[in-house]
Every structure is written in C-alpha cells, then in structure tokens.
Amino acid sequence: MSTPQALSGSDTGRMSGRAWGVLFVLCGAIFLEGIDVAMLNVALPAIREDLEMSTGMLQWVMSAYVLGYGGFMLLGGRAADLFGRRRMFVFWLVVFLLFSGLGGFATEGWMLIVARFVTGVAAAFMTPAGLSIITTSFEEGPQRNKALLVYSGTAAGGFSIGLVVGGLLAAVDWRWVFFAPVVLTFLILVAAVVLIPKSPRPDRQGQSVDLAGALSVTGAILLLVFGVERAAHASAAWTAATIGAGLVLFLVFVAIERRSASPLVRLGIFRSGSLVRANLAGMLFAAGFFGFQFIAVLYLQELRGWSTLQTSFALIVIGVDAILSPTLTPRLVARFGNARVIFGGLLLAALSYALFLPIGADWTYWAMFPSLIILGLAFSLAYGPLTILATDGVAEEEQGVAGGLLYTSFQFGAALGLSSVAAVNIAATDGTSPAALLDGYRAALVVPLVAALVAAVISAFGLRSRAGAGEGDTGPVPTAAPEKNVPVEAAR
C-alpha cells in the first residue's frame, strides 16, 4: 500500500487528485453497500408476493445478509491486513457483483436467501478492506479525518437514496433492485483497478492464519446475531441457548487468542479506551437508529396507510447527514474534538427519539419532521467521528482489524435494535385497533431512546475538561468541501 505521503500530493497535507480518486472509489463502494440494503428494504413486499414467501422466510432475506456481514467482518478485517487491502477489496467486490446479480435471477425463496448471505460475506471482507485503505493511505490528522467524514457521509447518502430508488425500481420489477447494483459495482470495480495503487504483498513472515481463532469468533458472532435476529420469533429457551452457545464460543476464542503466536485479533488492542468506547457507542447507536426506522416504517405503512414510495420520501430527510458530514462535522471536530461531537450527536439522537414518543394516529408530516431532521443531524455528528475514534492511533498492520471490529459492532447493534423493538412491539400490541397499534409503537420507541442515552453515558467517559479538546482530536480539520462533491452505515 502506498504511504500517506504518496497520496498527500504535497508537504502541506493537501490531498492530490490521485488521493481524491482513491477516495471516490472507496466512497462508491460504501455507497453501494448502503443503497443495496435500502433498496431491498422497500422491495420486500413485492418479493414476497412474486416468490410466494411466508413472513418468516421473507425475514431471512434480510437476516441472511446481516448474518454474513456481521459474522465474517472480523475475519475480513484480518484478511485485509494479511493478504493485502487492495487485493481483498477488488476480489470481494467481484463476488458482491456476481451474487447481487444472481439474486435478481432467483425463482425460489431459498435461492434469494443464499445469494443474500454470500453478498453479506462479500461486504464483510470488502468494507474493512476499504476502510483500512483510507486509514493507511491518508496521513493521520486533518487529511484522514476529512476522508473519513466524506466516507461516512456517503454511507448515509447511499441508504437515503436507496429508499427512494428502491421504491421506484420495485414499482417496475423487484428484480431491478438486484440488477441495478451490478451496473454500479462494475463501474466501481473498473475505477478501483485503475485508481487504487498496487501494494507489495504484505510480509506475513511469522504470521500464520489463525484458523482456530477465525472459526471460533465467526461461529460466535453468527450464533449471537442469529439468536438476536430470531429473538422475536423463537422461544425464550431457544434464544437463551443460542446466545449462550455464542458466548461460550467467544470464551473459546479469547483462550485461543491468548495462546496464539499470530492471533486473529490481538487482545491488547482492547487496552485502547477510545477504541472500546467507540465500538460500544457505535453498537448502541446503530441499535437505536435501525430500531427507530423499523418502527417509523410500520407506523407510516401499517397505521397511516402510506405507500412504499411515500414512506421513502418521508424518511429521506434523515439523509441530510450526507451533506452535513463533509461540511459541518469537520468544523465541529476542529473546534471541539471528536469525543464532544460524538457526545452531542448521541444526545441529539436521544432527543429525536423522545420527540417521536407521543406519536398520534393523525400526526401530520410536519409533526414528525423535527424528529427526522434531528436524527439526520445526530447521525452526521456521531457516525464519522466514531469511525475516526475507532481507528485513531491503531498500528497500520491492525487497521483492518480495527475497521472489522467497528463494523461488527454496527451490524450486531443493528440486529440487536431490530429484534429488540420487534419483541417489545409484539408484546405491547394488544389487538389490531389504531389505539393498540399506537401503544405497541410507543412502547417499542423506548428501546432506541434508552440505547442512545446509554451510548451517550459511555461516550461521556472520553470527554476531557480541557476546552476545545477531545479524545481522538488530532488537530484542525479542514472545513473546505472538496472541489467536486464525491457521491459517497452503517451501518450503516
């Protein structure tokens, strides 16, 4: 991999045209991941009708992707460090392209589920590779911060745009939800081959692949995500047994890593308080964010009778963070530091969820608007700085692992949030009347609120009393936007 200086373009730290090209490619990939998930969300009713899938089987179209993504993320991050970030990024981008296209040809539900699982695995290898290319190719400090904030803004933009594009494509034929990403993936692949510099093969002398560690942690994450995803649909005993087995495998993983000469994840990395706080806060933030969106969609479509496209346009305002992340957030980080900006973003998320708690059966869109716009602002303040904090100060040879840890936290948090709000909603809904549905929604909305408040408490431990400073503050972040706006979760 080229050094940071190779992409800086000058001794002043200004980013060269080549650097912007590399960032454009990596932003395109995370945009692709966001738009792919969002488009599928709004196409699920059409898929169920065409493939005659039950509700339980339809849920697996989403869960299979989450399992593949969350389960293999740590292995993907380590693979990027061991086998080359560019090599892993390009290879798994090809896999993503192939299986996204295969999903569009599915004639049976199980075919679509398998395609989504492999697509999730591809994203699990591709995403940490792309993030670590940024963190190792851009000099730590203002340049890297700007790149990461543009990158995070892209992820949100992809999800927001995907909601609308998915509704439009599904209105024509749901299969275009899978075919459209193929075209975008191909363009990104060509640009990646041309623009991302080739790097020497990593020196793996004395660093064997920790197969036992990889199998144990992947199995543990799969079982935990699986147990959380199915919590609302399975018995308490089954859920407890599944999660318990996952925790046992985690203990096995820790034991293996303690003894391994070349561990998959060096346990000493968790001595970084900022990394641990970023991952915990990121997990809870994702839980609240995805849980809230799930309840908001149910409210708008089940109770209010809004169409898929109306719902998509209603929620697109959350995507304002695609604009704010590369413009407003760098200024705030430069002034207050990452820790304080994250803390403010989490408090705003809690405010957003609290404002939505008293939803009524006849709320106008303008009554909902404050919650939605504040949530978009909260995402712009929290997501990018969390990404910076989780990778800041980590050695270059462990950047892939650090990225894998963060995105594992985001994915597990999303699964946790979705299953938790679904379980509370089901338990609190007594009947099918509008009043009963509202009771269920209001009860479920407490989950995102609590998640955001706990995340804020965790992030508060990283605050410093020194004015204008914050954890992960590595200097002023340039406030000027790039000359050309780069079309760039969690995440999301």
Automatic annotation (TrEMBL):
Subcellular location per UniProt equals:
Cell membrane
One GO molecular function term?
transmembrane transporter activity
Q: Where is this region: Disordered?
A: 468-492
Q: How does it sit in the membrane?
A: Multi-pass membrane protein
GO CC annotations?
plasma membrane
Protein's UniProt keywords contain Cell membrane: yes
Q: What biological-process terms (Gene Ontology) are attached?
A: response to antibiotic
Keyword tags: Antibiotic resistance, Cell membrane, Membrane, Transmembrane, Transmembrane helix, Transport
Membrane-crossing segments per the record? 20-44, 56-77, 89-107, 113-136, 148-170, 176-196, 208-228, 234-256, 276-300, 312-329, 341-359, 365-384, 405-428, 440-463
Task: Identify the main location.
Answer: membrane
Q: Which residues form the Major facilitator superfamily (MFS) profile domain?
A: 22-467
Q: Which domain of life is it from?
A: Bacteria
Matching entries from PANTHER family are given as: BLR6921 PROTEIN (PTHR42718:SF46), MAJOR FACILITATOR SUPERFAMILY MULTIDRUG TRANSPORTER MFSC (PTHR42718)
Q: What's the protein called, per UniProt?
A: MFS transporter
